[in-house]
């Protein structure tokens, strides 16, 4: 890709967590002000970017790269967590998260949350 979307509209919030969440992992709300790593098929609220102790920074908006399972075309897409720290296309019956996929590869996509 000849252009960079890095930094576009980034919005990161701090949440509590009860477990280690590696950077790049899709997360979901698990309690008031608390997030957990998503299981396969979960709709995600954002992507973990950092963790310090019981607190995790979660990117809620903006451009983000993410590991991907399967094929996701560029354009608007409904995505869910793949259960392995990445994302995948939501099935027809799944309630996914609407994102704009701006670059699609076999192992990683670039998306605007």
Outline the fold blueprint.
Elements: E1 11-17, E2 26-31, E3 34-37, E4 46-52, E5 55-61, E6 63-67, E7 75-81, E8 87-89, E9 97-104, E10 108-112
Parallel strand pairs: 1-3
Antiparallel strand pairs: 1-5, 2-3, 2-4, 4-5, 6-10, 7-8, 7-9, 9-10
Strand content: over 45%
Structural domains: how many: 2
Total count of helical runs of at least 4 residues: 0
Describe the biggest sheet? 5 strands, mixed, barrel
Distance between the terminal alpha carbons, to the nearest Å? 19 Å
Q: How does the overall form come out from the CA principal axes?
A: globular
Tell me the total number of β-strands.
10
**Low-pLDDT ranges:** none
Strand order of the largest sheet: 1-3-2-4-5
> Can you give the helix content as a percent range?
under 10%
Q: What class would the helix/strand composition place it in?
A: mainly beta
* Rg for CA atoms: 13 Å
N-to-C series of helices and strands: EEEEEEEEEE
Q: Name the average pLDDT.
A: 95
Protein name: DUF2190 family protein
Q: Could you characterize the architecture of this molecule?
A:
The strands form 2 sheets. The protein has a 5-stranded mixed beta barrel. The mean pLDDT is 95. It has 2 domains: 11-61, no CATH class; 63-112, no CATH class. 0% of the residues lie in helices and 52% in strands. The protein is an all-beta fold and 113 residues long.
Quick structural overview:
The protein has 113 residues and is mostly beta strands. The protein has no helices and 10 strands.
């Amino acid at each position: 890709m000849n252009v960079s979307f890095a930094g576009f509209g980034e919005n990161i919030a701090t949440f509590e967590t009860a477990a280690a969440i590696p950077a790049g992992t899709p997360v979901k709300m698990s309690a008031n002000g608390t997030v957990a790593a998503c299981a396969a098929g979960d709709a995600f609220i954002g992507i973990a970017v950092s963790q310090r102790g019981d607190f995790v920074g979660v990117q809620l908006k903006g451009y983000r790269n993410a590991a991907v399972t399967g094929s996701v075309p560029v354009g608007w897409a409904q995505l869910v967590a793949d259960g392995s720290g990445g994302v995948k296309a939501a099935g027809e019956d799944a309630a996914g998260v609407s994102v704009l996929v701006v670059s699609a590869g076999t192992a990683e996509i670039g998306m605007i949350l």
